[in-house]
Amino acid sequence: xxxxxxxxxxxxxNVKIRVKPDGSGVDIANVKMSMNPFDENALExxxxxxxxxxATEVVxxxxxxxxxxxxxxxxxxxxxxxxxxxxTDAARIEPLAVAKVLKAVIANEAPDLVILGKQAIDDDSNxxxxxxxxxLGWPQATFASKIVVGTGTIDxxxxxxxxxxxxxxxxxxxxxxxxxxxxxxxxxxxxxxKAKKKPLDETSPExxxxxxxxRLKVLKTTEPAGRAAGILVASAQELAAKLKQAGVL
Length: 249
Ligand code: AMP
What we know:
CATH architecture: 3-Layer(aba) Sandwich
Number of strands: 11
Bound molecules: adenosine monophosphate
Largest sheet: 9 strands, mixed
Number of domains: 1
Strand content: 25-35%
CATH topology: Rossmann fold
């Protein structure tokens, strides 16, 4: 079984985001960038399936600038076999454009399973996996917390309101990973060195015949309103009195 994992380079989850003074977006100059956390879960799961002998090859793919190659090297250092860089200088690539590019990559690669992150923490779209499954006409299971591979099928447990749901999907299929799926590994130094020699192919949206021009316009970006400082109360009675005073109780 061949697994394809799309990974995105995003602002590191620990960075305090700053909005550009003109409100046109978020300032990412000189900011630490990392692999999207949910994509680490997706890749970890693919690697575990390969280590269990279920998968034979794990291929990672990213669509992004020259610098996105760093994210691919990080994924290769975690253990992916091969990487594909769909290079573009476009400032914004919307989920539908990403899904169309991925569809073209999938046509070339013919994976049995595609595992994406459930959402990218920069745009919080949570759309790419769903759009891609529709474009491919493949079954999908989103927000996966467990994947069990059967014969020609996979059982995916997903977190839904008030509990867990398990779906059986016929392969080829698409899954989006939630944080609870696993604990991603750190790349060891020897693996970081080895990753430099692993194959990393380059292509472009144009070569794949995909138009990635944005269809949406960002009108403005604003910081969330600041919150008033909290206060400490000495007892539950005092808390209740304060809440009453504030009209909450
Ligand atoms: P989103 O729909 O933007 O929240 O992204 C959901 C998932 O799609 C991410 O977790 C990635 O697995 C994948 N994805 C989104 N954008 C890209 C990209 N530029 N390159 C590769 N994968 C991406």
